[in-house]
Amino acid sequence: MVCELIDLTFSSPDPERLAGFWGGLLGRDITIERGAPSLTALPGVGFSLRFVAGAGEKWGPNQMHPDLKPESIHEQASAVDRALELGARHLDVGQGPDAEHVVLADPDGNELCILEPGGSFLAGCPFFSSLAGAGPAEVGYFWCDALAWNLVWDQAGETAVQAPTGGPKITWGGGPVAPKLGRNRLHLDLTPSAPSTIDAEVGRLLALGATHVNAGCADGIGMADPGGNEFCVVG
Hints:
InterPro entries: Glyas_Bleomycin-R_OHBP_Dase, Glyoxalase_6. Residues 8-115, 134-234 form the Glyoxalase-like domain. This is VOC family protein. The chain is an alpha+beta fold. The protein has a single domain (3-234), classed as 2,3-Dihydroxybiphenyl 1,2-Dioxygenase, domain 1 (Roll). 20% of the residues lie in helices and 34% in strands. It has four helices and 16 strands. The chain has an eight-stranded mixed sheet with strand order 2-3-4-1-13-16-15-14. A hairpin with a 7-residue loop joins β14 and β15 (220-224). The protein is globular.
């Protein structure tokens, strides 16, 4: 039994606007998925981006943010310019003036990084290269088992997982983790792989260390991983 990752869902005060930003940045069309604006599946990624109504005032740094990996300095500059034209802004999170990556906030204030080209850790990953999260190693171990993905990094409390077929990595940077003062704006949506069922998968995830929470799932069961990060299991 295993769950498949089908969506990265953003809760937004204005889902249509946020979908337009990310669609323009990633060059994807907007469709309607489970009643919410969504982007068609990204090449080499394996899951969609979905945007639902919700989220009030931002209470602090998101527990997870997307990283985009260009192939050249020119592509990095073009991606930054495109993001700014679509409504992003530069964001100072202490990266310093010598940082080669660019930290931005989308129109809702959600953090994203446009990385410098090169480097071996994300080699072979698509442009939407990773989801960078905050959490101890046990969170990485949980998601490795929940999705049956490969544990591709496990050092000094930092972990990363990746699907056996490749695609983006999901990383957790260890501690310290900023205090969690409300529901995350970004969460993952999972669905059971046949022949498993939602009830069976919920039971399996609970055994792995998940808990039941109100995750704002309109069409599924709300849960949280061992780090308190919400996710939804949908049919």
